[in-house]
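Q: What would this chain look like folded?
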Amino acid sequence: MLVNLAFIVVFFVEMLIACIFFGNLSDRKTPLLSTVLIGTVIFEIGAIINIFLISNIFLNVSYTFFATFMFSILCFNLKKIKGLFYSVILVAASNFFEILLTLLIPSLTGNVATDFQKPIELVIEVIISKVLYFICVMILLNFIKEDNNKIKIPISFFVYPSILMFSVGSFWYICVTENIEHTNQIILTVVSVALFISTIFLFFAYQINAKKENKLLILQQEQDKIKTDISYYEILEKQNTNLRIYAHDARNHLSAIRNFNENPEIEHYISEMLDNLNKYSNVCHSGNKILDVIIDKYVTECGINNIEFKYDVKNNNLIGLEYHDTVSILGNLLDNAIEASINSKERYITFETDFRNNYSVIIISNSCDTSPRFDDNKTPITTKKNKLLHGLGMISVKRTIKKYDGDIGIDYDKNQNIFAVTLMLDLKTSEN
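A: My prediction, written as structure tokens:
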């Protein structure tokens, strides 16, 4: 009975360790509770096979690998090849420590074989091997560099599994060398299992809290960026208003000078100046001040970077889109478009707005010579090294469009090297 219970506990522990490991490398596809339930079902089938069918080393290893791999691709955003690779590593590490302990036990006890060991001793030995496996996995996580958003386990946390290892090892030694009652041996075994699971849950809870803190940090950074952008656009709007007033007055003065002038060369010079002033004054007059300022800003920025910027907002000036959300959506998408276009041979960006079936449509397309990578949510993965500090733009856009019962479509044309983002927003139902 005790051995059967040990099978159940061991497979459950294997699942928790795999959950911590894969959860550190990628986001979950399913909520935490669902992930644990799915993982428990997958892994506990292995325990049932051992208890009711056959307990075979080869079958046990094969199923553990299968369960680990299926768990990685069903519940986590890992590609199959990575799930396969890491599943091999986890199963290999787990079995390595089991074999290592099997070889060490005879030398420690003086027995040639362990076939005649008490079930309680065997259970504690399995726990010791899983503690070593758990420590190995935690150390491995700190060396795997999937990205800079990876949560590192503090060195101080390894005090807990170290103490656990010492405690469980002491319990095993007492059970082997001391003639203690069977009831007390069971108590020591139960305490060993409880200590082990509580230690795993400690790391599990730390991982969850660390991810929450990371998300809060990302949200705070995003909000700070939007506030900075809004302040920047407010300053630009005031500057543009003053410059337009100046341009209007300058045109009037030049027109007056032209009326008094009879020199053809001066006439030509004045005409050129008036043309330049007219071009500046007519960058964008959509009727939406913030949209005009944003377009003016990106016209200038694209000109500096030799990017052809075309826009068409005459059919829809996005007047129903709140100031804050206009900055968040257009600022993030156009920043991404400029970043991609700068690294392209043909540098261009097009920005269009329109109406489709009573929805406001925003289409931003740009040159992009490098095919983007997408995660399982079809969101482009940032190419910058620090993924915690970058890649916030699309996250912000997706969250903002939910406010307007909107949708987003992202497409990349490999033949023409065009990256396009299409937004559909129901501006009539937005909260004011």
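Strands lie at 308-312, 348-356, 359-367, 407-413, 418-425.
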